[in-house]
Amino acid sequence: MRDAVLRLRGGAAVAALLVFVVGAGVSGCKKETTGSAGPEESAAGGAALAAVDSLTVKGRAPKTGYSRERFGTAWADTDSNRCDTRDDILKRDLKDVKFSDGTCKVSSGILSPDPYGGQDVAFARGRSLVDIDHLVALSDAWQKGAKYWDASKRIALANDPLNLRAVGASANRSKGDGDTATWLPPNKAYRCTYVAAQVAVKKKYGLWVTAAEKAAMKKVLSGCPGQKLPSGGNPTQAPKRFHAN
């Protein structure tokens, strides 16, 4: 009888331990941020430097067949919040935002500071000195895997807040479709954040990097080994109602 009681108590203890461990695992999980709120630094994502080694290395494919239209209509409302993607990013990244209609169409604000140039830049609709930059340029993405995707995934990349920043037009116009090996923001203080975001986008979408690009990413991130990999953004497939040529 005594042995049976001990076995019963032992089984109950094991069960209680399992409940505690499983419960701790659930409570410790971090939900990924989605939607137009954009990226966040995620401890669960680990260091951006380590993530570089997870990227496939290949040569740059020809640009043949690329056009902006292959990524759908510019600034499509893929998150279905009734504001286009451009206004979503302006609302997220600008300060002192004013609207021309409700809380959607941004009429003015201040980019403080411009992450690329380091200075404050005023935004005024129609005569703006602010661009919305694709951190991973669409042409670069086309040459590193997006050419082979379906339209839904290309549209998702073009409108994903994880891949978008409001930046000063002056610095951005010098970027073109450059990758980390060929262009970095003039503002050196932003380079770790910029490269970590490119790594995050390429990892999320399965885009490859060139050998030179990988080396450049590691060079920048080696100077900030604690830089976290951003997470969040939208799903990698756009809703079926969106189409691209």
Can you describe this structure?
With 245 residues, the protein is an alpha+beta fold. The protein has helices at residues 2-27, 48-52, 85-93, 138-142, 151-158, 169-172, 191-205, 211-222, and strands at 39-41, 95-101, 105-111, 121-124, 130-134, 164-168, 230-232. The strands form 3 sheets. It has a 3-stranded antiparallel β-sheet with strand order 2-3-4, with helices on one face. The chain has a two-stranded antiparallel sheet with strand order 1-7. β2 (95-101) and β3 form a beta hairpin. The radius of gyration is 22 Å and the shape is globular. It starts with a helix and ends in a 13-residue tail after the last strand. 37% of the residues are buried. Mean pLDDT is 86; it is low at 1-36.
The profile of the biggest β sheet is:
3 strands, antiparallel
Using only C-alpha atoms, the radius of gyration works out to: 22 Å
> What's the rounded overall pLDDT mean?
86
Q: Count of DSSP helices?
A: 8
Low-confidence stretches: 1-36
Question: Largest beta sheet: what is the strand line-up?
Answer: 2-3-4
Helix content percent band: 25-40%
Amino-to-carboxy terminus distance:
77 Å
Strand content: 5-15%
Give the H and E element order: HEHHEEEEHHEHHHE
Secondary-structure content class: alpha+beta
- Based on CA inertia axes, which overall geometry fits? globular
Count of extended strands: 7
